[in-house]
From TrEMBL:
GO terms for cellular component: SCF ubiquitin ligase complex. Coiled coil: none annotated. SMART domains: LRR_CC. GO terms for biological process: SCF-dependent proteasomal ubiquitin-dependent protein catabolic process. The lineage of its organism: Eukaryota, Fungi, Fungi incertae sedis, Mucoromycota, Mucoromycotina. It comes from Absidia repens. This is F-box domain-containing protein. InterPro entries: Leu-rich_rpt_Cys-con_subtyp, LRR_dom_sf.
Length: 350
């Protein structure tokens, strides 16, 4: 059991664990299901090192590589061949692999359901995205992190082609794209909000974007109307208003977690209405939203992450809420307002 999920963060631990995998009799590699290679102390995985490891872990199901900047198709194709039970693959800081790796994964790893790629500093090519959607149509979770320089990459036609390619991933339950290039997200929101495209991620439950300042109220609402299964929604740096918050309980009845960090257009009244009407909601991320702590007197000035994990404050003068968790939300929903003027109570529920 100790060998099922080793976490390797440096060259020393790599040498120690790999030696154990190779030399142990009977073999322990067959027991390993998860491998996580961190990048502490400058540790970086190479093609030769990865190919050495995959020879001895035939039952590997999850592989997370933080220091993957030197990996190429050479090692990923060998990974696919030697680890056919792979279900989850996450490669960080890699921009060398091509469609060849995707085709190898599709050929050998029929159970692959989660794919994460940090391609800093470049956005993946249209060919890569198209191959991804064609070769791995059964993906449940997709994460693409492309770095800030990708925000100006490509043209509208190219980005639209990528969106239409991703539309073929009908089984997606999780889609995370950060940062989110406007040229990519505008056609994504337009196409995915079209009621005639009934198969556009019908099972999506987790959706996360960043740099969302270009998304209008109507664009956000149109998207929400066609994705009723969402339970987690994260739209960082958005500029939409309380109008969007007000429709969330209707369009997303299962919403449990929402991130609206950096949005200064929402108000404490809109937030209060959301909390009162969205019964399943248990977490709201509010960093840099400008929501004043004093507007939620039910918290009784208890803003510390103590044993009850009630709330957390963005210190300042005045102080702002950084997030609301389950305990804080319940306190706001069920707290006594008897000390508030009747007019203020009514205003906060409008």
């Amino acid at each position: 059991m100790l060998w099922r999920a080793p976490h390797i963060t440096d060259t020393h631990s790599f040498a120690h664990i790999v030696a154990g995998i190779i030399d142990a009799r009977p073999s322990v590699g067959q027991h390993i299901r998860r491998l996580h290679f961190g990048n502490s102390f400058g540790f970086s995985m190479s093609d030769s090192l990865l190919m050495l490891v995959v020879l001895h872990v035939p039952c590997l199901e999850e592989l997370h590589l933080q220091g993957a900047e030197d990996l190429t198709d050479m090692s990923i194709t060998r990974l696919a061949y030697h680890c056919p039970r792979l279900q989850s693959l996450h490669l960080e800081t890699n921009h060398h692999i091509t469609s060849q790796s995707l085709l190898s994964l599709a050929q050998h790893c029929h159970g692959l359901r989660t794919f994460g790629l940090v391609t800093h500093p470049h956005w993946p090519s249209a060919t890569f995205v198209a191959t991804l959607a064609t070769a791995l149509p059964c993906l449940d979770e997709l994460l693409i992190h492309a770095g800030s320089s990708s925000l100006s990459y490509g043209d509208n036609t190219t980005m639209t082609e990528m969106v239409l390619a991703l539309a073929r991933l009908e089984r997606l339950t999780t889609l995370i794209i950060v940062p989110s290039p406007p040229l990519f997200m505008q056609p994504l929101l337009l196409v995915s909000s079209c009621t005639t495209v009934s198969s556009f991620w019908p099972q999506l439950t987790t959706f996360r974007l960043s740099e969302c300042g270009y998304i209008t109220d109507q664009q956000a609402i149109s998207f929400l109307q066609t994705h009723h299964h969402l339970t987690t929604l994260d739209l960082m740096s958005a500029t939409f208003t309380d109008r969007v918050l007000d429709v969330l309980p209707t369009y997303l009845p299962r919403l449990a977690w929402i991130g609206i960090e950096g949005n200064t257009n929402i108000t404490h009244n809109g937030l209060r209405r959301l909390l009162s009407k969205c019964e399943g909601l248990h977490y709201v991320a509010l960093f840099h939203c400008g929501i004043l702590a004093k507007d939620f007197p039910e918290l009784n000035n208890d803003y510390n992450d103590d044993d009850n994990d009630v709330d957390c404050l963005q210190i300042g003068n005045p102080s702002h809420l950084r997030h609301l968790n389950f305990h804080a939300i319940n306190r706001i929903r069920h707290g006594s307002w008897s000390f508030l003027p009747r007019q203020q109570q009514q205003q906060q529920l409008v």
